[in-house]
Write a structure and sequence with these properties.
By secondary structure, the chain is an alpha/beta fold. Helix content is 42%, strand content 17%. The chain has one domain: Hypothetical Protein Ychn, Chain: A. A five-stranded parallel sheet has the order 4-3-2-1-5. Strand 3, helix 6 and strand 4 form a beta-alpha-beta unit. Helix 3 runs parallel beside helix 5. It is globular and about 40 Å long. It starts with a helix and ends with a strand. It comes from Chryseobacterium wanjuense. This is DsrE/DsrF-like family protein.
């Protein structure tokens, strides 16, 4: 990275933009765990997903949180002030990219104003988030 900065005056602006795109760290966090299971494992997964988002946020990195599968039920639970992960959720909820539109249709939930993601046009569904688009946009994908 130091080499790029020291050569910045010699590298064309268009190439500098491309280099910045490829060197900027970006992470998409996909939450699949089901709060209805009532298990410590499900709670542990959402806790660790949000804790990871918190860490990326404070490192100044680009992070997106996506709720998919039965994980689309989490926002409704995490909004409750007495939920043990409520405080952490409030720290990172501005990074929630949205919920899977197809999963909302199948599993149902209160959407709470989040965007419904449907770039992956799977036949017979209203669509799901696109992992290919995330990957092509330079995101590492973590699944919890």
């Amino acid at each position: 990275m130091k080499i790029i900065h020291s050569l910045a005056g010699y590298i064309p602006t268009s190439l500098q933009c491309k280099l910045n795109f490829y060197t900027m760290k970006k992470t998409a966090i996909i939450i699949l765990s089901d709060p209805k299971s009532g298990s410590e494992e499900a709670l542990g997964r959402v806790f660790n997903a949000l804790a990871s988002a918190y860490e990326f946020k404070h490192a100044g990195e680009d992070v997106k949180i996506i709720f998919q599968g039965t994980g689309i039920r989490w926002p409704e639970q995490l909004e409750k002030a007495d939920h043990p992960v409520h405080g952490l959720y409030n720290e990172v909820k501005d990074y929630v990219h949205g919920l899977s539109k197809g999963c909302v249709a199948v599993f149902g939930t209160e959407v709470s104003g989040y965007e419904l993601l449907n770039e992956n046009e799977v036949p017979g569904t209203p669509g799901l988030p696109s992992f290919i688009n995330l990957r092509n946009d330079g995101y590492d994908i973590l699944i919890f």
